[in-house]
Amino acid sequence: MRCCQYDYGFIKYKCTVIQGVVNMGVVAVFYLSEMRAKVVGISDIASVLFHEESFTFKEITNLFLVKSGNILVYNLKHI
């Protein structure tokens, strides 16, 4: 049981864009995904990715795991 209970209904299904996903943005993505927000855009210092329907948490995790320093490395065939 969590020590604090919050009503995340106001975030559920909202469209979000995360800037700086390689640094602190990844924390925001984790919590927003947990609250069922739709992450439709992510960016880093060099690029912006947009997915009209929403990135899955797995897709965002994969992007973070294969990053190069503070730059996302991506292959559009796998996104």
TrEMBL record:
GO terms for molecular function: oxidoreductase activity. Residues 11-63 form the Glutamate/phenylalanine/leucine/valine/L-tryptophan dehydrogenase C-terminal domain. Transmembrane segments: none annotated. Pfam families: ELFV_dehydrog (PF00208). This is Glutamate/phenylalanine/leucine/valine/L-tryptophan dehydrogenase C-terminal domain-containing protein. GO terms for biological process: amino acid metabolic process.
